[in-house]
Design a protein that fits this description.
Layout: H1 3-7, H2 10-17, E1 24-27, E2 35-43, E3 46-54, H3 63-80, E4 102-103, E5 109-114, E6 119-120, H4 128-145, H5 163-176, H6 186-203, E7 214-216, E8 225-228, E9 234-237, E10 244-246, H7 248-259, E11 261-263, E12 273-275, H8 277-291, H9 297-302, H10 306-324, H11 336-353, H12 355-370
Antiparallel strand pairs: 1-2, 2-3, 3-5, 4-5, 6-8, 7-10, 8-9, 11-12
Helix pairs in contact: 4-7, 4-8, 5-10, 6-10, 6-11, 7-8, 7-10, 8-12, 10-11
The chain binds 2-acetamido-2-deoxy-1-O-phosphono-alpha-D-glucopyranose and magnesium ion (MG).
The site of magnesium ion has 5 residues, from loops.
Amino acid sequence: MNESATLLPDSVARAFGGSRKPVESRPLGNGLIHRTVLARYETATGPLPLVHQRINTDVFREPARLMENLERITRHLREATPATAHSRFLQLRPTIRGELIHRDQAGDLWRSFVYLEETRSLDSVSRIDQAREAAHAFGRFAAILADLPAPPLHETIPRFHDMRGRIEALDSAIASDPLRRVPAATRELAELRKLLDRQEAVFGSADWANLPRRIAHHDCKLNNVLFDASATHAVCIVDLDTVMPGTLLSDFGELVRSAAATRTDPSRDPEHVKLDLDAYAAIAVGYMAGAGELLSGLEKRAMHFAPPLLTLMNAVRFMTDHLRGDTYFRIDSPGQNLERVHDQALLAGRLLDQLDEAREIIASAENESVR
Ligand code: GN1
Ligand code: MG
């Protein structure tokens, strides 16, 4: 079997691309959940680039509901986004027979999008204005989806950003320890506990339970914004599978976690993850400007609690998955989820150290964002 055959089953190419075979196919992006392939087809009317995605049905257990959400969300974004020079839209590509999902011979489910040419995603920012731009795009995304007509979107993953549930899952993984990995993870587990206690102590004053329920993206990582080729303008938000009811502070937290951290070589620097407060400020300004009137006073007052909370939530999830045997997050090397725990723990530590600065940054960003 050649590589493209293992990457993309023939039946998937046939279902979405017609009788043609792709002239090229390659893996796309750095997502940890689905398998994503970019395939280029030649058609009578010109080149057709498609993104095929094998849906991870262990994670998304109700694919039909997932696709129903996606169809409504992509349609609303297309219809309700004011036209600007840079906006592009995610467009689902049904099969030739008009279905949104194709089941291949192995029983795997695939869906497709039209690939947006001349776009790129960033795993870290090289310029502060990119952090601001990404945050602005996510803020605007929330503002546009706030007007999505009823009914509410399906909850595609129940209790997705429920920290209590995440901690319970970790505790039960520690108790059952199916692969006997707990002893070798003692250091990271202790690190995590200490941070969770610190978080708990400060979080007491956040009125989290009373935050308004809105449509949140829930995976607002920097690399889920497509930029134009020069990496200057955000053109489209992707990875919409977890767009569902929740709190927007989840999104602000994920943005800071993914776009305000700088990383150096861990073998040379024990503190290899640092917090970039200038990037933090740019994210706060961008997000508030993008969301406009949408954010309430309660949300703004609790905003600085979100980045450490979401960073720790990811640490807890990576640890749980490590103990369970790496069944959720894709790993490239053994122990990678444990490394991710350490990395997130370093960042969470910095975020907790600088909570007061963060609150001040957000207060001045609020003034700047309305200017
Ligand atoms: C997953 O696949 P990716 O990287 O876009 C995960 C997020 C995590 C993230 C950590 C559905 O997203 O919640 O924050 O990995 N998505 C899901 O990198 O669990
Ligand atoms: Mg992604």
